[in-house]
Amino acid sequence: MTAAPHIFRTYDEELKFLAKRIAAMGGQAERMVDQAITSLVSSDHALAQQVVADDAVLDGAQREIDDKAIVIIARRQPMAGDLREIIGAIRIASDLERVGDLGKSVAKRVVAVTDFRQPVSLFRGLQALAELALTQLKDVLDVYASRSVENLATVRDRDGEIDAMYTSLFRELLTYMMEDPRNITPCTHLLFCAKNIERIGDHATNIAETVYYVATGEQMPIERPKDDKSHRVTVSSDNPSR
Q: I need a labelling partner for 184 at 20 to 30 A (CA). Which of 110, 114, 163, 221 fits?
């Protein structure tokens, strides 16, 4: 859905500025998470440090969007679709800033994890989880750019797949910790990494709901699939089978 042009050309340019900055933030957040996972898998401490440093860029972009949005509201007194567009930009920027924080958190744990050798399957599980979460994030940002919300509910519902994969990985990590106490420290850090990635899926879902509201003026149904059952996972100390 494309909004009609305004009488003042500068008003349209201000709204386009917000959309462009959101797109840039989205690309930066995706890149940070991808690089954080790469640094974790490859024990690349330099790349991890770069991810941590790049978070300041994302923080600055969010502040820029917030400041610009406030100025637009004060100057233009927007209503209806324009107001939704501006408030939506603020909300999406906040979610993207949190995605960047989660990527930074993963990167900060690289040293602690790579000091210990861990099974390759654990890193493959994290990579698969991150790929699923980043695909969901990319898809909702594509919808934000195109405003083609017809399939947005399907994209949002994909969060259930992320939750299910996280629960499986949680169980596997817990099993390794039970098998050998030396695994407790690195696997605890990996648990935090896995949870951070799962949370990225939640933020992508938030963005999907915001985009739908911006484009239609209606809220998506409040029910969303939640398949994170990690709170129910237990492993017997007598038989820690996978």
A: 163
